[in-house]
Amino acid sequence: MSGGTRTDGGAADDASDGDAVVAAVEAVADRIEGERDHLTDLDSAIGDADHGGNMARGWAAAAEAARDLDDPDPQTVCKTVGKTLMAEVGGASGPLFGGSLVFASAELDGGVTPESAVAFAETYLEKVEDRGDARVGDQTMVDALTPAVHTFKKSIETDELPPLEALAKAVDAAERGVAFTVPIRAKKGRASYLGWRSVGHQDPGATSALFILEELLAVAADRLDAEVPDVDATSPTIPDEGAAESDDATPPDPEDG
Fold first, then answer.
1. Which phi and psi (to 5°) does residue 57 adopt?
2. Sorting pLDDT into bands at 50, 70 and 90, what band is 2?
3. Taking 90 as the threshold, does the pLDDT of residue 246 lie above it?
4. Spatial distance between the Cα atoms of 175 and 79, rounded to a whole number of angstroms
5. How far apart, in Å, are the Cα atoms of 166 and each of 95, 114, 231?
6. In CA terms, which of 78, 118, 137, 158 is 20 to 30 Å from 70?
7. Closest C-alpha to 143, from 101, 107, 175
8. 160, 133 in Cβ contact below 8 A?
9. pTM above threshold 0.90
């Protein structure tokens, strides 16, 4: 889901797409820095209060590393950013955000097309799930990424939407995925130690993932000299309405954590 996603499905211009990816990384770094305190507040409630600082430091270093590349291509930029995040972001977020990016960057070996963007998104999600041993409903970044990736894939492959509209629908799905983390109980990470007391808190990792997707969309629209498309409220999402009726919505037992 690169900011340089092409609309014609033809051969990619690696130099142009690489510049777009660098621009997206810089935009993400600025956004995360601007949201540092917000992310810290979210993490303070259910974690160790370091998510905002770690992410801001990591993305600032990633943007600098991306800018220093000579004639960057999308794969090289993503790999460089991923390695930098792994080195600079502490805790579980470094391997999750950065390590998965390094692995998924291979999907951009032939440039950025709608097809390679879908493959990149799917591979990234799979690695996040594997590395975090997390699934939808665990109150993690997977709750935002899963509906985003599924929506993006369906929009491109089934609905044959233009990439920018597909990305807009993915962002919409991610936003609702973030909201989904609030009423459920955390089952992974430090937040899981709180048991039912984690209910009612928005997951900071899912929130960071949403911010990143929003910046990718903004950069893509800028590169295409287009307005961000409006999306309706029918974007397919995972989890769906039925998930809200799971046992996570059951009032907590006073004897439980």
1. -65, -45
2. very low
3. no
4. 26
5. 27, 10, 9
6. 118
7. 175
8. no
9. no
